[in-house]
Amino acid sequence: MVFIRRNVWLIALAALLRFALATEASPACCEANGLPLLQQFNDAQIVLFGHFENAKPAANGVDFGTSEFVIERTFKDHDALKGKTRITLSRYIPDSKTKYFLLCEIYKGRLDAYKGVALVNDREMIRYLDGAIKIKTRPPPERLRYAFDFLNSQEPEVAMDAYREFASADYRDYQEIAKKLPAATIAGWLKDEKTPSFRHGLYAMLLGHCGGVQDAKLLLSMIDDPDKRRGSSLNGFLMAYTILEPEKGWSYIKDLVQSRDKPFLVRYAGLQTMRFLRDSRPDLVNPNDESAARNEIVKGVASILDVPDMADFAMEDLRKWQRWDYCAQVLDLWEKKGYETAFARKAILRYALQCDTERARKFVEAQRARDPEWVDDIRELLELETKAAPKSPK
Predict the structure, then answer these.
(1) pLDDT at site 29
(2) Which residue spans of the chain are classified as CATH 2.40.50.120?
(3) What predicted TM-score, i.e. pTM, was given to this entire model?
């Protein structure tokens, strides 16, 4: 039986709240981050396309009522349908003109339609899905290149699903295909005021691989525009700008994380971009020496130790990357003004607990003498996290 003190969970909750402060979601983000339709289809037992007829409200005014769903096409069949062309659902849906996808399962012997997707342009959706189904076993880059052509579809569900394909993909899956995409088209989407802000980051990343000097200027103008950089878009803009202008981009990011006059979320986007460069594109900082590039990026992250309201994030990165060469710099923060917050002190202790140096051990001993329960709580939570976390390259 595993016993974990209550304080450990309170500390974990505080960490989650701290993380929430470093994120800013657009209202559409939750929907945009859903599973692509093909994956939802794979998970469903039955997938139907059609429309509703004969809607009847409940006689008692309390129940859901009923409607008949006319099956026009079966994408995923099941023995429970037995050749049926209509099914009755416990839903009152009087709209007979709108086409729907129904995702169903058999629950306790009965058909349960647990999700319906209303369509504005059903022909566009059918065209999109027919093509996607044909290439569903192809490599991710090929599937993403197909999805790109539907990112700006006039059918909202198609456009959203194409976006979800990219949102759920790894950067390396579209890194190469993005180089051959039409830059003018993507730049036009970014300039269009109707483009939802949550798409800006993806479009910027795509443009960063296929654009030119003028596109770099466009991206920089958007980085400096508070309206364009809302939500999670800013780090996408920063990454894209650095891909097109490596030297200027890296210099801009290093200055940005130190700019205390900038809002916290703007500076945090700079840190996110540094992490991306270290993990995925160190070549943008030094194309000839990956090790030197990573060291330069880590140095940039370490510079954030001088920024009190972001230092705990930098300490966590240095700990995860096992960069114990910054031990003295981290431990010295304990006595500095501006680092008295619970977040900063917890991050310092977490770093010291895993740093195998004489000074770190003495620091932990001193903190244990001061508050043994706090040290034990932090250590216990850190051990749980370490067991679950994937290893990061140094």
Answers:
(1) 42
(2) 37-119
(3) 0.85
